[in-house]
Design a protein that fits this description.
Elements: E1 7-8, H1 11-14, H2 19-34, H3 36-42, H4 45-58, E2 65-68, H5 71-81, E3 89-93, H6 98-111, E4 114-118, H7 127-137, E5 142-148, H8 160-170, E6 173-178, H9 189-192, E7 196-200, E8 212-216, H10 237-242, H11 250-265, H12 267-289, E9 305-309, H13 318-332, E10 334-335, E11 338-341, E12 344-350, H14 357-371
Parallel strand pairs: 1-10, 3-4, 3-5, 5-6, 6-7
Antiparallel strand pairs: 2-8, 7-8, 9-12, 11-12
Bound molecules: pyridoxal-5'-phosphate (PLP).
Length: 372
Amino acid sequence: MLDPNITYLNHGSFGARVSEVFEYQQSLKRELELSPINFLDRQRYRIDEARNCISSFLGAEVEGFGFVDNATTGVGCVVQSIQIEPEDEILTTNLVYNGIRQLLTRIASDACCSYRELQVQFPLQSQNELLQLITDAISNKTKLLVVDHVASASAIVFPVKEIAKICKERGILLLVDGAHAPGMLDLHIDSIGADWYVGNLHKWICAPLSAGFVYTSEPHRDTTHPMTISHWYKQGITNEFNWQGTKDITPWLAAAKAVEWGSKIGWSRIQQHNHAFAVWMQKTLVATWNVEPLSPLDGSMLGSMVTVPLPATLPNEMEACLAYRDYLYENYQIEVPIFELQGRGVVRLSGQLYSREEHLKRLISAVCDYSA
Ligand SMILES: Cc1ncc(COP(=O)(O)O)c(C=O)c1O
């Protein structure tokens, strides 16, 4: 549904909607308004149908699967459900999404426990290097490790299955923040072996906004609760997550339609296409701008997004980067995130079915105008 006049290279932030899914959601909204009690009360089984569809698509046991509005809320549910003592440590990395950083520091401050970010420096050579850094950073105090499946700013894919194995061996709780992973990666949540896995459906599955989920592994199902405690408190994860107060549930129901839309094309085809496009964008920009990539050019640490350093003549401080992002939008109708990462101005690019080589060429040409 994107405006064709905009060069849209930022699928990652808020996804984009497919018209057939949007129309389906509108029809659900109409149904809801025609008979609100019937839709929201008697027909609550429709949430279960959507839950079955999405959990099976993501390879997650349906008994542990609950819808939430977004990944931020999902992470909030998990961290507020864990008993954390003052002697404990919450560990994450410096690549953590800033909203989640705020949440974790608040939880740590409430529990009077320590909060630590392991420092990951670029360039990275391999997922093994990342795994080693994380393994070395875990301490005897670490109670909870929070890692991204696909890190937001850097677009790096973490080896979550291997991390989960280490956490099991060391008796550490693992929460994987998979905000970007559903639809981008070939996901089998159960086989990862994390204690919790949180994700968004409104990014790479192209579901309506406000569709996210929390997956809880079996041992934690009695103690994990939604942020909003309501009628069904302690009556099972399914009941609790299905009713989080009165709300519009059409994004959850229409998410199943988005899965169906992708299945018609083939999710693995979509994923392979988008990955190949991201890898091509990285190679092209690294060669054109003569910059050092953050990760190997073979794309082994990438999904469908890539973050590339800007040429040195471009802004490299956060405020100036954000101003440059707006400049590109206003003057060239190019929508692309530009920000500072470890002292460098960078651009994060997303590959999606609507992406075209021409889009990247427009960006290169605009950057060239600015540098000239
Ligand atoms: C790793 C990560 N976690 C959490 C979020 C927050 O997602 P939402 O705003 O949908 O809650 C994002 C958003 O991009 C993200 O990249």
